[in-house]
Amino acid sequence: MKASTVIFCAIFLLSVTLHLAQSRSLTIDYERDCFLKDGKEFRYISGGFHYFRVPRYYWKDRLLKIKAAGLNAVQSYVAWNIHEPTPGHYNFVGDADLLSFIELVNETGLLLVLRPGPYICSEWDF
Fold first, then answer.
1. Which helix (H) or strand (E) holds 87?
2. 64 and 100 share a domain?
3. Is 77 strand, coil or helix?
4. Is 55 found in the same domain as 21?
5. Fewest CB within 10 A of the end CB: N or C in the chain?
6. If you write DSSP's letter for every residue of 27-72 in order, what string do you get?
């Protein structure tokens, strides 16, 4: 099994574990045309935040500003060219510490829509 597949599975399992640990639910009420989060009507308001474009030192500050602006979720790509710069060599430290980013989003009380790629169409120059 390729290491990138193993890493993706580990991230997926982490997100499921965090979700289950908090006993959250997100469903759609088709009769009222709305989302239900934990059984209550919920409006999803999201903005994009590419953690790999922002120094790790500023992540918490930016996430708190996103929350203060009234958003309740962030969307982020996973830039595999950052995490696997050459085949078989992986980078998940420093500004590329995806796990810490996911945990920080959770700590700030925001929801995360993770967009794993590998093609992210994120105006990235190689």
1. none
2. yes
3. strand
4. no
5. C
6. EEETTTTEEEETTEEE---EEE--GGGS-GGGHHHHHHHHHHTT--
State the pLDDT confidence band at 119, using cuts at 50, 70 and 90: confident
Is residue 112 within 8 A of residue 71, CB to CB? The reply is no
**Same domain, residue pair 62 and 117:** yes
CATH number of the domain that 78 lies in?
Answer: 3.30.420
Predicted TM-score (pTM) of the model is 0.74
Averaged pLDDT of the chain:
84
Domain range enclosing 7: 1-43
118 contacts 126 by C-beta, under 8 angstroms: no
Cα angle: 31, vertex 46, 9; to 5 degrees? 90
Parallel, antiparallel, or unpaired for β 73-77 and 26-29?
Answer: unpaired
List, for residues 17-48, the tens digit of each pLDDT value.
Answer: 665 556 677 788 898 888 888 888 888 899 99
Q: Are residues 50 and 108 in the same domain?
A: yes
Q: Is beta strand 26-29 parallel, antiparallel or unpaired with respect to 34-37? A: antiparallel
